[in-house]
UniProtKB/TrEMBL annotation:
Molecular function, one GO term: sigma factor antagonist activity
Species, as recorded: Phocaeicola sartorii
Domain Protein FecR C-terminal as annotated: residue spans: 260-323
The name this protein goes by in its record: DUF4974 domain-containing protein
Domain of life, source organism: Bacteria
PANTHER family, alphabetized: PERIPLASMIC SIGNAL SENSOR AND SIGMA FACTOR ACTIVATOR FECR-RELATED, PROTEIN FECR
FecR protein domain boundaries: 117-212
Upper classification of the organism: Bacteria, Pseudomonadati, Bacteroidota, Bacteroidia, Bacteroidales
Length: 337
């Protein structure tokens, strides 16, 4: 690395994990040559991660949903003066970012990954591009925690809520989704949907393509793994430790990521659950005899009232809004009777 441009380009590739073994040797030789080089590398890494984190945060604040994931912001080929000016501006930002931790007396830098958390508001969805190019769609009231880069032989993220994953294939680097109640979904490269909102609700995994293993605590308190095949849905009950598997087309389970609601002979309680996530409402089913009802249909941009009227006309259900004495209540309540 004989000039500043080569250094900047290789260091940026290094922070992204895209360097080749010969390039890694070049970088390590340059870092070990001078303590000033270590200081520069620390500043550049802080800048790179700060810009990337700010880019993701901006997308979540301003976009309701993405049809497809856009490329992440890259920082490339700035002059040394440009780097210094931008670093000075970013150092005032709270460090919710990863840094390159340097320890006195060590010849090589130690890279420390910081966890980033992405959240969606009620009734909103978003998409995230992970460091390994895995695409994640987050549904309403969901959160995803992941590191600024994946180290070692495991790519691990934490999900609370619902997400659709399109995982970048890597045969030697497992991808693990940790969910509430000590359960996990283990994959190597595949597409699947996970719903895991916690509390007392079941956890479900729907496999679209590839192969996944669902790790859970069974009714004897021991951890067990159950493998899924494509077009199969697994539902886990944390209270009993039981699991059930169903054949499914996957259309109904993943339609939310495309802004649709697809019902295919879907039971009423599941229909109401899906509508509740989409429109941020709470349903109260006062007529338990309606649980045997099921519905078929596809909805895209229709308002909730129009969808409920469709159900009223096509079946015997009725519905009404319930007034709440608490004006601070965030969700509207609808009684179905």
């Amino acid at each position: 690395m004989e000039n500043h441009t080569d250094i900047e380009t290789l260091l940026t590739k290094y922070f992204e994990g895209n360097t080749t073994p010969p390039e890694n040797e070049q970088i390590e030789a340059w870092l070990n040559a001078d303590e000033e080089h270590l200081r520069i590398a620390k500043q550049l890494n802080t800048l790179y991660l700060a810009v990337d984190t700010q880019h993701i945060t901006k997308k979540i604040d301003t976009e309701k949903a993405l049809d497809k994931v856009k490329s992440k912001t890259k920082v490339r080929n700035l002059s040394w003066w440009g780097w210094t000016q931008r670093i000075a501006a970013i150092l005032s930002v709270p460090l919710l970012i990863g840094v390159l931790a340097l320890y006195p007396g060590r010849q090589q830098p130690v890279v420390t990954a910081q966890m980033v958390e992405i959240k969606t508001n009620a009734g909103m969805t978003t998409s995230v591009l992970l460091p390994d190019s895995t695409v994640v769609h987050l549904n309403s009231e969901s959160s995803l925690r992941y590191p600024t880069f994946f180290a070692g032989d495991v790519r691990q993220v934490e999900l609370h809520g619902e997400a659709y994953f399109d995982v970048t294939h890597h045969p030697r680097k497992r991808f693990i989704v940790s969910t509430p109640h000590h359960s996990q979904v283990e994959v190597y490269g595949t597409s699947f949907n996970v719903e895991a909102y916690g509390n007392e609700t079941p956890i479900s995994t729907t496999l679209i393509k590839g192969s996944v293993g669902f790790i859970y605590k069974n009714n004897k308190g021991k951890f067990q793994k159950s493998m899924l095949s494509p077009r199969q849905k697994l539902v886990y009950s944390p209270q009993t430790g039981d699991i059930k598997c169903y054949a499914t087309s996957g259309e109904s389970e993943i339609s939310w990521k495309d802004g649709k609601l697809i019902f295919n002979d879907t039971p009423l309680d599941e229909v109401l659950h899906m509508l509740g996530k989409r429109f941020n409402v709470e349903f109260v089913l006062s007529n338990k005899g309606l649980k045997d009802c099921s519905f078929t249909g596809t909805f895209t941009h229709q308002r909730l009232e129009r969808i409920m009227e469709y159900f009223r006309i096509s079946s015997r259900i009725r519905w009404r809004y319930i007034d709440s004495a608490d004006i601070k209540t965030e969700k509207l309540k609808i009684e179905v009777y």
